[in-house]
Amino acid sequence: MNKNSENRRKSSKNSKSVKNNTKINSKKTNKKDISGQKARNKKKKRKTLRIVLLVILLIILIAGGVFAYRVYKNGWGLSGMLATVVGHNENTKKELQELKVLVLGISTDQEGVELTDTIMVASYNPNTQKASLLSIPRDTYVGTNPAKATAYQKINSLYGRKHRPDETLEAVNDITNLGIQYYVVVRTEALIELVDAIGGVTFYVPMDMNYDDTNQDLHIHLKEGEQLLDGEKAEQLVRFRHNNNGTSYPVEYGDNDLGRMRTQREFIMATIKQTAKPENIFKIGQILEVAEKNIETNIDFNVAKDYIPYVVEFDTANMITNTLPGESTNKNSSGTWIFVHDEEETEELIQEMFYDRDLEQTTEDEEETVSKADITLEVLNGSGDSSNLDKVVEELEGAGYEVDRKGTTNSTAKTTIINKKDVADTILTNIKQTIGAGTISDSASSSSKVDVTIVIGKDY
Length: 460
Known about the structure:
This protein has helices spanning 3-73, 77-85, 92-95, 158-162, 165-176, 188-197, 231-239, 256-275, 284-294, 301-311, 343-354, 387-398, 425-435, and strands at 99-107, 115-125, 130-135, 182-187, 201-205, 209-213, 218-222, 225-229, 295-297, 319-323, 326-329, 338-341, 360-362, 367-369, 376-381, 402-408, 416-419, 439-442, 452-456. It is of the alpha/beta class. It folds into two domains: 97-358, 3-Layer(aba) Sandwich (Aminopeptidase), CATH 3.40.630.190; 367-456, 2-Layer Sandwich (Alpha-Beta Plaits). The strands form six sheets. Strands 9-4-1-2-3-10 form a six-stranded mixed beta sheet, with helices on both faces. It is globular, with a radius of gyration of 37 Å.
């Protein structure tokens, strides 16, 4: 082989080698570029993620701060938190009226028969944190002529006729003149399941109880003394009237139905205390399930939820309890035992339990009781209906107030109760409850000749 051929082969090899090295170096460079780009992309993503997380954290902090501020404005604590959750502000509670409810306890032991064992009027004022519980004897006569009374004319028979709670509601309003709008029908199963759901209720059983009724499949056997009652024993307690041998509650406690109603009221108060314990907050789903299955009511959810945040701070020591005044008699043509309420005493008791209880105001230096008659009222009619002026004046005077001035004013949509002389909130709230409408506002004026001006709006 000549030298020229050999040189050409070497040159070709060298050329191929250079090309191969160039390709290898190019691949290495590309890999480095790609790797670097990926690293830069990762850094950008991490930076973006950090920014997003910071923004989210900032939003949480701001939202949490706003929520905490609203809880603070709503009074802190569990009550303030719940009020904030349902959308309340610091003025919402002031606008809430006293809630009055008729409570009917129905026993369902006998198939096809629903007996009204318990009839009560319950009220709750979220602003004063006071409540009332009035028992209505189930034998209360609701006919027109007691001399010809029959069992069919007792108040506990009204629900059993057509299973309509509104008929019992109407009868109770006729007796009390409270203008109650709402009712709650609670069946036996609700009491049993609720007591079991909250882990039982500790209660002092006032006496030995031994009673058997095979017709109702009702068997009551409880020993006197403090004990933890489960649902079944709770039912026995609230349904007890007398023993198999005819003995009942002692006279000093309140014999027969009086004792039974007292026990029912006191057990309800004990159950409220137990239900309101913090550990039972986590059982709210179970409690609501019990209510849904066994309770019938005309209270709208939107109404109920407004009161829930404030009920949790209720102290049963602020509850007034009593029984409708009257006497039992069987002096009628059929010899039927009925309870005839005393109208005059009933009116006085209703006034005391549902109106006068909120009318004490105190100063830092001394306590003084403010009489309704001491408050000077002015009523102005802006509703456009002349009859409304007389209605409001009649309602106020019927509740013990004196109206010093009355007249008309420009047409207005909303009823307003104007505080002119730094009158206590409890009195303003009582006025609002008395007329059943009104937004309370302050407009202090040293020159005003009245303490409170009430402007009747079209909403009355």
